[in-house]
Amino acid sequence: MPRPYVLLSAAVSLDGCLDTPPGQPRLLLSNEEDFDRVDSVRASCDAVLIGAGTLRADDPRVRVASAGRRAARIGAGLPAHPVKATVTRGGDLDPDRRFWHHGGAKVVYAVGRAARDRAVAAVGALATVHEVAQDDVWPQVLEHLHGLGVRRLMVEGGGSVHTQFLRQGLADELQLVVAPVIVGGVDAPRMFGPGGYPGGPEHRLALVESRRIGDVTLLRYATHLRPGTGAPATAADAAWLAQACALAAHCPPSTTAFSVGAVVVSADGRELARGHSREGGDARVHAEQAALAKVPGDPALAGATVYSSLEPCGHRASYPHPCAELIAAAGIRRVVTAWREPDTFVPGANGTERLRERGVTVVELPEYARAGRAPNAHLTPGE
User: Fold this and answer.
1) What CA–CA distance (Å, rounded) separates 167 from 89?
2) Would you say 54 and 88 are in contact if contact means Cβ atoms under 8 Å apart?
3) Helix or strand (DSSP H, E) at 206
4) What are the beta bridge partners of residue 5?
5) Which has more pLDDT, 121 or 202?
6) CA-angle at 229, arms to 72 and 77, nearest 5°
7) Residue 228 and residue 235: Cα distance in Å, rounded?
């Protein structure tokens, strides 16, 4: 089933509550700096989805607030705001809610004919209403959004929606902001509901980032380790690239070659091979070369991604084929790197362009450049 990349976003208290108990004044768990971060994430997405319960309880506008971010979207040929979507099982939607009168295009997914008829009567003049069947609601929603051109979807809640996405294995990333408060109410809404989750309690999410934002902490997790499929980077891409950067620290020291780590990952998230520079004591071996040599002819390479702490080499004197050629020849069509190769040893190395000439998508994550450079600081003191 074709579907967008799904990012779940929520703010919780230290005891896991999304909000205060019903009947009490609402508690804002995030701060202004984090609200701006959320606005930035919205601006990076093609659509934002919230549940009908959240729409009724919070009356959100769901829009890109920053004029600069709206202008940047328009400059990139996108609408000023992402598509806004909600799902309703009853169709009882209030047309006076701010959701319908701000932001971009709206889509309502109504579960069943009766809900569709009520939703059309309520907000048919304000949104496009699409009927979905009672069974497998979320896969239908995601497939329809994908058909609308949505490749990156931000899900802002509420807890029931987040629970269903995680339990059905449909979420790719979880962005969780933890606030330094304890709500304490036994009837306060919780982030996730009870039930079975993929992998069971022994399944550990991959922590991609932790960052202090004022008095709250952002935690980003990859819910699985399947690589991305195009130019946009995913949380799983970041997790794998971090492993490649860590591998570079295992390289034997050298003053004449870079220390690089590489990991080859199949489309379904299985690690196929890993390698590092000068592996096995051979001073000429590059990281990507060492990794690929372990899985020659593996059919999974055709859909795999190579993660390398440094741009794969485009020219080299020690072997007849540079790593860019080895990657393309193996049938790999996607590479994720941390930083570009400087001219320290090979002027105009430019492996990225050689890969792209051969139809390989190259994604650079500059936030990992520092980790990739760390074992090479003695070679590039000015970097």
Assistant:
1) 19
2) no
3) strand 206-213
4) 152
5) 121
6) 20
7) 9
